[in-house]
Structures are given as structure tokens and as C-alpha cells.
Automatic annotation (TrEMBL):
<feature type="compositionally biased region" description="Low complexity">
    <location>
        <begin position="1"/>
        <end position="11"/>
    </location>
</feature>
<comment type="similarity">
    <text>Belongs to the peptidase M76 family.</text>
</comment>
<protein>
    <recommendedName>
        <fullName>Mitochondrial inner membrane protease ATP23</fullName>
        <ecNumber>3.4.24.-</ecNumber>
    </recommendedName>
</protein>
<feature type="region of interest" description="Disordered">
    <location>
        <begin position="1"/>
        <end position="30"/>
    </location>
</feature>
<keyword id="KW-0645">Protease</keyword>
<dbReference type="GO" id="GO:0046872">
    <property type="term" value="F:metal ion binding"/>
</dbReference>
<keyword id="KW-0479">Metal-binding</keyword>
<dbReference type="Pfam" id="PF09768">
    <property type="entry name" value="Peptidase_M76"/>
</dbReference>
<dbReference type="InterPro" id="IPR019165">
    <property type="entry name" value="Peptidase_M76_ATP23"/>
</dbReference>
<dbReference type="GO" id="GO:0033615">
    <property type="term" value="P:mitochondrial proton-transporting ATP synthase complex assembly"/>
</dbReference>
<dbReference type="GO" id="GO:0005739">
    <property type="term" value="C:mitochondrion"/>
</dbReference>
<dbReference type="GO" id="GO:0004222">
    <property type="term" value="F:metalloendopeptidase activity"/>
</dbReference>
<dbReference type="GO" id="GO:0034982">
    <property type="term" value="P:mitochondrial protein processing"/>
</dbReference>
<keyword id="KW-0482">Metalloprotease</keyword>
<keyword id="KW-0378">Hydrolase</keyword>
Amino acid sequence: MEEGAAESPPAAEKKGAEEEEEDDFGYRLFPDRNKKPQSFLVRSLFTFHNKCQLMLRLTLETNPYARLLLEALKQSGCTVFNDRHFSCENCDGCVSGGFDAATSQIVLCQNNIRQQSHMNRVVTHELIHAFDHCRAHVDWFKNVKHLACSEIRAANLSGDCTLMNEIARFKFGLKGHHQTCVRDRAIRSILAVRKVSKETAEKAVDEVFDACFNDLEPFGRIPHNKADAKRAYRDFQNRDRYHANL
């Protein structure tokens, strides 16, 4: 995760004399989603919230991954506004962020994001979900393959699986390691937000992996580092100028 989508859960079907446990679509990981919003004065007293807002602003203004995605969303008809589409909240200890498709809002876990580099990666990851939500008819809640595809793309394009991040996780590999990381993180994300078996998550990821791994929009390449992301951002801007002159 760092990822996830959520919506009001459907009624659980009965199984025999007992009801199945409802799938909350990952809402349990974001307890502040169901609370009444606090006043600005109250929120401003909490250091985590202030720091989260400051790091978010820096990411949106300076990070090439985020800036490219923001422009791509705007061109797709889904302009992102800081105060409307981002929310700094306290979350479960195992997640850093999530995309709430029911409100088109990105949740940033202020109690778990402590470094700017982490904020950059989380925002990028969730903006990829937002971009997929904008450009395609994604059935986040009933079609696990749709969820798997967006998780594959987010892990592939956000920097989640860069060499340095993998070394920090004490995971090493050479040939095909990037693909292995993307697959593993996509499966973990699905299991975090859906009550499905590991086998179901693995099957969904494997069935859509090649197509979704090779879908590089809007970057046009896998940005393995900031230099790659800056080149992708420049190419995206030039592509827009080219089409404008046709």
C-alpha cells in the first residue's frame, strides 16, 4: 500500500446461518475517514498535521514525478486541488497513504510519513491511482483485476522499486528484480485493502501483469530516479507542444 481505494461496503451475503464478514475495502486502515473533520485551529495544534501539509506542498511544487502527474490529470479533465483532493490523517501503522475513489481524495498518513523522500513517493503512488481513476472506468471495488492493474502501474512508475529503496528493504537481485518487486508490492497492496486470498491476489496480478507493466502513461518510460522523471516531464511538456501545432 501506500495505496488503496475505498467505498461504502456492500451488504454481505449470508453463508448458511451466519453472515460473512463484510469487506470494508481498506477503510479500517484509515480510521479518520469516518470521523467528523476537526476545525482548522484544532488541526493546526498537531505537529504531524503541519509537517504533513508542508511536505505535501513541497512535493507538489518541486517533485518532477508529481508535477508531471498533476499536469496529466489536468489535461485529462481532472484538475487536482490541494485543499480538496489531499487529506493528512492518522492511519493504521502499516500504511502510508491511500486513494479513496469514493471521494477522489488522496489520504496521506501524517503519523507514518516522516521524511520528504517518503512523501514524494507516496504522493506519486497515489496520483497514479488518481490518474487511472480519471482516464479509465476502473471498477475498484468489484473487479480485482482492475485494482491489480493500477497497483502494478503505481509500483512500477512511482519509484517504489528503485534500487536504493530495495536495498533499504534488504532485498537484492539482478536480472528481473524490478519486475519481481513490482509484482510483490502489487500483491501486498491488494491483500491490505481487500479480503481476498493470497492465491486470488496473485492470480489477478499475474493475469494482467504484462499489459499493465508496459502501460507507462503518462511518463512514457519507467522513471528509475529523479533524473529520469525530469526527462519524462520535459518530454511530456514537449509532446503537448507538438500536438498543439498539428
